[in-house]
Amino acid sequence: MASLKELRNQIFIGTFIHSKKLDELEYLHDTAICVDKTGKIIAIEPQCDQKKAEMSLYPTLGWSAADVAVTIAKDGQFFFPGFIDTHVHAPQYPNVGVFGKSTLLDWLNTYTFPMEASLSDLSKARKVYTRCIRRTLAHGTTTAAYYATIHVPATNLLADLCLSMGQRAFVGRVCMDRMGPDYYLDETADEALAASRASIEHIRGIDPGFALVSPILTPRFAPACSEGALAGLGRLQRETGLPVQTHISENRSEVGLVRELFPRSRHYAAVYDEHGLLGPRTILAHAVHLGDDEADLIAARGAKVAHCPCSNSALTSGEARVRWLLDKGIAVGLGTDMSGGYSPSVLEAARLATLVSNHLAMGGERRGGEDASAPGEGERAKLSFEEVLYLATRGGAEVVGLQDRIGGFRVGMEWDAQLVSLGALGDDVAEDDMQDYGNMDVFGWENWDERVAKWVYTGDDRNTTMVWVRGRLVHERK
Amino acid sequence: MASLKELRNQIFIGTFIHSKKLDELEYLHDTAICVDKTGKIIAIEPQCDQKKAEMSLYPTLGWSAADVAVTIAKDGQFFFPGFIDTHVHAPQYPNVGVFGKSTLLDWLNTYTFPMEASLSDLSKARKVYTRCIRRTLAHGTTTAAYYATIHVPATNLLADLCLSMGQRAFVGRVCMDRMGPDYYLDETADEALAASRASIEHIRGIDPGFALVSPILTPRFAPACSEGALAGLGRLQRETGLPVQTHISENRSEVGLVRELFPRSRHYAAVYDEHGLLGPRTILAHAVHLGDDEADLIAARGAKVAHCPCSNSALTSGEARVRWLLDKGIAVGLGTDMSGGYSPSVLEAARLATLVSNHLAMGGERRGGEDASAPGEGERAKLSFEEVLYLATRGGAEVVGLQDRIGGFRVGMEWDAQLVSLGALGDDVAEDDMQDYGNMDVFGWENWDERVAKWVYTGDDRNTTMVWVRGRLVHERK
C-alpha cells in the first residue's frame, strides 16, 4: 500500500530556525543538515556550505557527492520544523467557514453530523480526504491527529491516503454510541469497540510499525459515549498502549451536560480518568473551562491539551488559559479543529493563539476573582510569536508523543520540515513578487526576529515552498 | 498629474452580491450592469445576458456594441462592492506584523514614530507607499482613509500615488505638536496648521474636485495635539468643510492620559467636540472604551466610527462594542489600522470583527453589570458574516461620507467593485486550482450564503481577481 519511493541521502544548507525553548527561537545560519535514506537527521554542521560538506562532512558519513540530493535555502528562505496539528476533523473539511452564529451543541446537529454521516459514501470520502490532506500539507502540516467518522471503510481510506500522500498522521475512528442522530451512531458499545478494533487492524496492516500512520482511540466526547463504550475503550487502551484523543470542556453547556450525564464524577476530566482514558498518551482538545482541581488531575496523569483558538473564537466557546495550563506543567499544542475552526493552517492557529491570549489578558482586569474557575490573568496571559511557534512544533510533538522524533532539528530526529520563503523586496517592487510570496513584504531592514514575526502575522501557504515528512518531499509549491 | 486613461462604456454581466441592509445580502443573478465613461452606473438590468443587452439595452442608452467593453463573471465568480478601509496608516506599512507584546503608548515610541520619521526620505516614502497602495488594491480596497506622516512632501507624494494608481483615498497630513519624540514633531501649532494647509492645496491642485483623492484633517489624537492645534484644525474644518480623522479611546492608559491633559473636558469625545472637531464628517478610529454619555454625544453630532478589530486584538486594546454603537445610530466601518493591525486586508478585518464580537459575547456573562462603561452584551453582541460585509462596504461608505456614491450597486452610484472568484472544485482536484484560488474550496453542494461565508472565513487576495475604481481597472490578478 505504501508508495514511498526509495529516498536518497540528502543535505539541506542555509538558515534553520526552530524553538530552543518555549520563548526562544534558535537561528542556525550557514548550517548544513544531513538526512539519511530513512529520513533521519544524522549530522548538523555549523559554518558549512556545499563545498565544505563534500570535502569534510561526506567522508565522515561514508557518503559520495553523486548520491546526495542537495537543497539550498536561498537568501530570504529558511527551514522550519513542520507544523503539528493536534486536533482536526478531516470529514468536516468541506464545512470550513460555514457555522453561522451557532455554538457547539447546535453546530453539531446543524452542520457536523449530517456532513460526517455523508462520508459513508467512499467516493465522497476520497474527494474530501484527498483535498484535506493536500491542503494541510500545503500549509506545512507534517503531522495531523485526525478524527475520521464512525465508518470503518472511510476511516481506513483516510489512513491509506495519509500513508500514500506521505503525511504523518494519527487516524481515529470516531466512537459515539449516544447523543448523535439516529442516522449517525454506533448501535451498541460492543459494536463501537469492534469497529474501532477493525480500523486499528487495518492500519496495522498497512503500516505495521506505525512509522507514519498510527491508529488513535477516539471517543468523540463524554456525552456521546455510554459508560460501556468509555470503559471498553479504556480497556482497549491498556491492551494496545495506543494514544487516545477526545474533547474536554469546550463549551459551558457541554460541561453542564456532562455534569448531568455523569452525576457521580466530580468533574469532566474525572469521567475520562474513571474509565482509564486519562493518561500520558491522551490528547484533550479545547480545555477551555477547566477548574483548578481538574487541571491538576490532568497534569498528574500527564495528559496533554490541544488548544484550538480559531474554533474557540468562531463557536464562541471561550478563551483557553494556555499560560495557566503551561504553568501547571501540562503540554500544549495547537489544533486547527476544522471545521469548528475556519482555517486549515496551523500558522493561522498560532496567530490566533496570540490574539486569543490578548483577549484573555484584556478580560483579566474585569474578570479577576469573581469566577473561581476563570481568574484574571492579566499581562502574563499573553503569548508571544515565539511561544506560539513553540506550541505549533515542539509543543505539538509532545502532545502527540513524538517529541523525540519531530518538532525540531537535532541529530537522531526525523526530517519533518518546511522551507519558508519570505517575500523579500528589492528596490524593484514587481507585481509578480507580490503574488508569489503572498502578503509578506520584507523591505530589507528587518532583523530575523522581525522577519519571523511578519511570517506569523502575514504569512500563509504561499510562503511554504517545500514540505518534507521523514525526508520525503510531500509538497512543493510551483 | 492624473494618468487616468479615457474609459470606454462598460457592461458587467453575471452575479452581483451586495448588502441590502445590515444583516441581509442581496443576490442579483444573471444581471447586467452598465457603467458609462465617467465610471457611473447607468443601468441595472435583471435577467439579462450579452445578447439581450445588445438587442434591447444598448439602444436605450445610445450605445453601440463596438464601443462597449464587456466583463462577464463566470460560474463561481461574482461582483462585490470594493472594500472601504476607514482607518489605515500608510507609512506604518513596513511594520505590519511587528509589534511584539507592546500596547499603544510604548508601541508608538518603539515601532511607529521611528518608522514614520524615516519617511521624510522621499525615495523610501515612494517605495513604502507604492507597495501599500498596490497591496491594498490587490485585497479589493477601493477606498482608503490614509494617515500619512507630518511631512508635507511625503504626504503629497502619497496623494499623487493614489491618484495615479487609481485608488480612491482620503490623505491626511498628520498634525502632532506634542507627545512625539523631538525628531518627529510639528514645532508649533501654527506651523502644524500651515503644513496641513500646504498639503490640502497640493491635493486641490492635482484633483480639483476631490473626485478621487481628498484631503482630510488629521489631528493624530488628542494627547499629541496642543489646544492651539486642535482649535486651529477646528477652524480649518469650518472654513473648508473637509472631513476629519482621528483616534478615540483605543486604550485605557490613553484614556487616562487624555483625562490628565484635558482636565476640564468631561470625557475624550468632549475634547474633540469643544474644539469643533466632532461633526458628521469626523471619523473616529477605535472607540473601544467609550462611556454611554460619550457615545450619545458622538451620535448626536453624527460622527462616525472606524472599528479596527485586528489592531485592537493585536495591541491588547480591548473589544469595541459595535452592536452598541450601531444601536445608538452611529455609523460604523472597518479599518485595517496597519500597522497596529497586522493585515492589509479588509476581508481579514471583517473576519476578525466577527471573532472579536464573539469574544465580547463570551465576556458578557462575566462582565455584566460590574463595569458601567462595559456592560455585558451576551449573544446580541455577535456580528454575522453578512453584517461585517455591510460594515466593510456600505458602513464604510457612510463613515467616509460617500454613501451615495460607493458601497453598493445602484443606478447613479460609481463602479467601485471587485470580481471575486471562488475556488470551485470539479471532481478533478488538480493542484493548480488550489494555488489559483487560495484556501477556498467550494465542493459544489454549498448554497450562495455558504459560499459567501467561506469567502469571509477562508478567502484572501487570491480570490480578488479584478478591482475597479470609478470604472477604471486598477488591479488584475494574473
UniProtKB/TrEMBL annotation, chains A, B:
One of its GO terms (molecular function) is guanine deaminase activity. Signal peptide: none annotated. Gene3D superfamilies: Metal-dependent hydrolases (3.20.20.140), Urease, subunit C, domain 1 (2.30.40.10). Keywords: Hydrolase, Metal-binding, Zinc. GO terms for cellular component: cytosol. CDD domains: GDEase. It catalyses: guanine + H2O + H(+) = xanthine + NH4(+). Binds 1 zinc ion per subunit. It holds the Pfam family Amidohydro_1. One of its GO terms (biological process) is guanine catabolic process. InterPro entries: Amidohydro-rel, Guanine_deaminase, Metal-dep_hydrolase_composite, Metal_Hydrolase, Metallo-dep_hydrolases. Its cofactor is Zn(2+). Pathway: Purine metabolism; guanine degradation; xanthine from guanine: step 1/1. It is an enzyme of class 3 (hydrolase). Its EC number is 3.5.4.3. Catalyzes the hydrolytic deamination of guanine, producing xanthine and ammonia. PANTHER family: GUANINE DEAMINASE (PTHR11271). Belongs to the metallo-dependent hydrolases superfamily. ATZ/TRZ family. This is Guanine deaminase. It comes from Monosporascus ibericus. The lineage of its organism: Eukaryota, Fungi, Dikarya, Ascomycota, Pezizomycotina.
